[in-house]
């Protein structure tokens, strides 16, 4: 990335900054994963199909609306939702709250067993 141009957050991308094949133009950015390009292509096509102009935002919804939609989808799929509470040990680099209001936090739980359980049947083990 060039030091003269700052990265553009996804909620600030315009349709004319996304090509037909999902690449970004006119922006400094890291290489995009194929899945990211697929999303960008789909979102661009949807927005243009629904009447958006090339200078319009790629994502027209507010960040709060996107956060609400993600939480609603998670609830409908019975997925655990991230809380608004961020543990004290979480670093700012671990969070996405700066750009989209969603935090990525490390999973915390019981330690996994280090040994495989005895797979022998009771007759063989005796």
What does this structure look like?
- With 126 residues, the chain is mainly α.
- It folds into 2 domains: 52 residues, no CATH class; 37 residues.
- The protein is 27% helix and 3% strand.
- The chain contains 3 helices and 2 strands; from the N terminus they run ααββα.
- The chain has a two-stranded antiparallel ribbon with strand order 1-2.
- A hairpin with a 5-residue loop joins strand 1 and strand 2.
- The longest helix is centred in the first third of the chain and has 16 residues.
- It is globular and about 50 Å long.
- The relative contact order is 0.12.
- The mean pLDDT is 75.
Considering the chains and any ligands shown, give keywords for the structure:
single chain, 126 residues, mainly alpha, 2 domains, two-stranded antiparallel ribbon, globular
Fraction in helix: 25-40%
Given helix and strand content, the structural type is mainly alpha
Strand order of the largest sheet: 1-2
Spans of at least 5 consecutive residues with low confidence = none
| Total count of strands | 2
- Amount of beta strand: under 5%
Work out the count of structural domains: 2
Radius of gyration based on Cα positions: 22 Å
Helix/strand order, N-terminal first: HHEEH
SS summary, helix count = 3
Major sheet summary line: 2 strands, antiparallel
Mean pLDDT: 75
Distance between the termini: 65 Å
* Oligomerization: single chain
Shape label:
globular
Topology record:
Blueprint: H1 34-49, H2 63-76, E1 95-96, E2 102-103, H3 122-125
Antiparallel strand pairs: 1-2
